[in-house]
Specification:
By secondary structure, this protein is mainly β.
Length: about 800
């Protein structure tokens, strides 16, 4: 193993040296590419009341500087915008907000696409976006996008993490289609931005416009695709001086009424109320607080038949834990579903006792987060949440008496982050997560150092981290380490990289994070080729290959080996298609599937092929097809996956999307059960492996009717059905191979299906305030006797005897302290 680490060290040293030798050349190339000279737009102070109505008629607009001369971003990068599509943007400001007017010419105004969709989803519509970096540090944007139908989308964006649309701000917009094109007028309060406290502000700035029918995007400043960074190539906004921003104090009270019913329980009504609070400590730091939580209308988790050794990972649907959490995601130590998730403890049972009732989740009492960034680029974040005592009900089967036992005590979850940015493209971070539970339950603490370093011209990147975990367990404490380091060439047509990571056996961040595998080290590499501008055949062309090898830390046995090649193409007609080859070129050692420490079984070689096609979504009818097949180096073992999704847009207000997924795994080998043995063998149990066929069907239908950009009806229906049918059983030998098992095994077949239907109405009646009405019915069925009749499976799920029904009405009202104080 020492030889492997020596090789890694030599490779990393070579790459660092190469990166350092190229730094001077990178600087010269940066000047040639125009990174030093930036466009500048100067704004002006206005005392006039700017009405956001899509009519640019206030006198203040006439005397302010204009941004124009947009440049093609994609696909025709670098070409000036045609004169018949010229775009003119102006910015004004006062002590409350900045105001943006955008006039976008179009040679065919009747062809401007303007589909109505929900917030944060542009759909088939032209759009205009303003990207603001209040610290001008080249690392993070606040992006505000408005479509031609006045739909709004907003996000935080960074070059490393991409766009995060879970972040929502309160701002105003209005658009109008004209005889020369279309116009957008926008008001962005300072409360929606973050910036330093200087009297004279200098912000990073860019604008983007898309003509959707051509899928052509234009930006105000030239964005060179040879360089990995988008944000660092922004222009400059000057002129904002001596502003006196209002108090940033907002309240979001809400009230919800729920009607719940199922076959076992009569209809029951529940009235809930809650309050969120947001306070701007200053123009850079914000405090968010949940005083009384209510997550009753969050999306339902889509559970699947999980036959693997690891838990299913779910998306976060609670807005508090998705909005503005970019700082807390550093190092991938934060899995927010741990807060208010399933209890960490189990009930201790006496003779003749059994658990009669146990909660699936833990109640959240309150949560808060503070985040922001200083003028010197230091980001600071604190997140804290408290969950309540949770009890299981235990029944004495002889006396019939019940008692309660705590299975999750009062617990405190805390995250602390320091993130220092420098050189406009690099950062160094420290993050600590801590879970403290009351009493004798386990506590956990994880700390990490994280670095992301780039050369001045963004041609090479070195990133990595070092994590240390400590778990204070009532039985035994444990400490572990996780670390990785990789170096990548990030510019030009040809890009490549190498890396390695290591996790010790006792590394454990699962109290507030999520991690499946430990006790390994890995080596990986990648390479790619892409075209930077369209040619006669393609708008986009990207060919890449990845190689990943993973070794068990103690034995050095290879436990994962993967080699894949991927091709992705964008056609001149804005269709997308591609293909891939994916292989496991050698046998690997699986230490997790046997579910027994020290045991493993051999996974076979495998090769697979796949492809996809996605037609242009601008067309009223479009579709996606995705499929792949694979064969393993075991007799009769193969797999096929197919996805088909047609979509039809009747008009700008009504659309339908249907998606069908099918998968079939023949002669799949996986853990079946353990059987105690009576002999004196060193192995106390026989590990039984199931040879099985696994079939899955998923049907999804979504449709929407948008009355306007603020009011939408949505329907979503999902039927999921998967079953595992065992053909025969095998005995796992000590060498990881299989032999036929001649004993008897209970029925281990599994048939799992779910149904979920959501019919909702949402109305944003004023910015930040919403009425939401939801009807939901759902059910699930899990049995060991498989019925392969699809219609029968479906009708069993929608039978009223198994369906649960929920009808809810929720009203949230956004209150700005500066307006509310005038009420009194």
């Amino acid at each position: 193993m020492s030889q492997r680490f020596l090789l890694i060290t030599i490779l990393i040293t070579f790459c660092i040296s190469n990166a350092q030798n190229n730094t001077k050349l990178d600087s010269i190339n940066a000047e040639k590419r125009g990174l030093v000279s930036k466009k500048v737009l100067k704004t002006s102070l206005t005392t006039e009341n700017i009405k956001i109505d899509g009519v640019i008629d206030e006198s203040a607009w006439k005397s302010v500087e204009m941004a124009s001369d947009f440049i093609s971003f994609e696909p025709d990068n670098g070409n000036p915008i045609p004169q018949n599509r010229k775009t003119e943007v102006k910015i004004l400001y006062d002590n409350n907000a900045i105001y943006i007017s955008a006039v976008m010419y179009d040679e065919n105004p009747s062809k401007i696409l303007k589909e109505f969709v929900q917030r944060d989803n542009i759909g088939a519509a032209d759009f205009f976006g303003i990207f603001i970096n209040g610290f001008n540090d080249g690392q993070q944007d606040f992006r505000f996008i408005v479509s031609a139908s006045n739909g709004q989308a907003d996000c935080q964006a960074s070059d490393n993490q991409g766009e995060d649309y879970s972040w929502d701000a309160i701002w105003e917009s209005q658009t109008k289609i004209t005889d020369f094109g279309w116009v957008a007028e926008i008001k962005i309060p300072y409360a929606a931005l973050r910036f330093s406290p200087e009297n004279k502000q200098t912000w990073g700035l860019n604008f983007m416009r898309e003509v959707r029918r051509d899928r052509q995007k234009y930006t105000w400043t030239f964005i060179d695709p040879k360089i990995r960074t988008f944000i660092q190539q922004a222009g400059i906004l000057e002129g904002i001086e001596n502003i006196k921003t209002p108090t940033r104090l907002f309240f979001l009270p809400y009230s919800s009424f729920y009607l719940n019913a199922d076959a076992q329980n009569k209809t029951k009504g529940t009235l809930k109320g809650g309050l969120d609070l947001k306070y701007g400590i200053n123009d850079a730091f914000t405090l968010d607080v949940i005083l009384i939580p209510d997550f009753g209308q969050t999306a339902v988790d889509q559970k699947i038949l999980n036959l693997g050794p690891f838990e299913q990972q779910f998306n976060e649907n609670r807005s508090f834990f998705t909005e503005g959490t970019d700082l807390f995601s550093k190092g991938n130590l934060f899995y927010s579903r741990r807060i208010g998730g399933r209890p960490s403890g189990r009930a201790n049972l006496e003779i003749n006792e059994k658990v009669s009732q146990t909660p699936a989740t833990v109640g959240l009492l309150n949560a808060l987060k503070v985040s922001g960034r200083t003028k010197d680029g230091l980001g600071i974040g604190v997140l804290n949440a408290v969950t309540e005592n949770t009890y299981a009900t235990i029944l004495d089967t002889i006396t019939g008496q019940t008692r309660r036992q705590i299975i999750e005590p009062l617990a405190n979850y805390n995250i602390l982050v320091f993130d220092q940015r420098f050189n406009k493209n690099s950062s160094f971070s420290f993050i600590n997560t801590n879970v403290t539970r009351n009493g004798s339950f386990r506590d956990a603490n994880v700390s990490a150092l994280i670095w992301d370093l780039n050369t001045k011209a963004n041609t090479f990147n070195m990133q990595g981290n070092f994590k240390y975990s400590h778990v204070n367990n009532p039985n035994q404490d444990k400490n572990g380490i996780s670390s990785y380091l990789e170096i990548n060439k990030t510019s030009g047509k040809y890009r490549y990289g190498i890396g390695s990571d290591i996790l010790t056996k006792k590394f454990d961040n699962n109290d507030l994070g999520i991690n499946f595998q430990t006790n390994f080290y890995s080596l990986y590499a990648n390479g790619s080729y892409r075209i930077l501008s369209p040619n006669k055949q393609f708008n986009r062309f990207n060919l890449n290959t990845n190689f990943y090898n993973e070794f068990q830390l103690e034995t050095g046995k290879i436990q994962t080996s993967n080699l894949n090649i991927n091709l992705n193409i964008g056609s001149k007609k804005n269709n997308a298609y591609g293909m891939n080859v994916n292989s496991n070129p050698v046998e690997t050692t699986d230490y997790y599937e046997p579910r027994t420490t020290g045991r493993y079984f051999i996974q076979p070689k495998r090769i697979g092929f796949g492809g996809y096609y996605s037609s242009n979504y601008n067309n009223k009818f479009a579709y996606d097809v995705d499929s792949n097949v694979s064969w393993s180096d075991q007799k009769g073992r193969n797999a096929i996956n197919l996805s088909l999704s047609p979509r039809y847009r009747i008009n700008d207000k009504i659309s339908f999307i249907y998606k069908y997924n099918y998968s079939r795994n023949r002669n799949n080998k996986g853990f079946g059960t353990k059987i105690n043995t009576d002999n004196n063998d060193l192995t106390p149990v026989d590990i039984i492996i199931a040879n099985r066929n696994i079939i899955s069907h998923t049907n999804t239908l979504t449709t929407k009717y948008s009355v306007n950009s603020n009011m939408t009806f949505n329907l979503s229906a999902i039927h999921y059905w998967s079953y595992s049918e065992n053909k025969n059983f095998l005995l796992l030998d000590q060498d990881g191979r299989f032999t036929p098992y001649l004993g008897t095994v209970d029925n281990l077949n599994q048939d799992f299906s779910t149904w979920n239907l959501d019919l909702s109405y949402t109305w944003w009646f004023v910015p930040g305030s919403q009425v939401s009405i939801l009807y939901r019915n759902n059910s699930f069925n899990e049995i060991s006797d498989i019925n392969k009749n699809y219609i029968k499976n479906y009708t069993n799920l929608i039978n009223n005897e198994v369906l649960s029904h929920t009808f809810s009405i929720s009203i949230k009202y956004f209150i700005d302290y500066n307006q509310a104080k005038n009420w009194f």
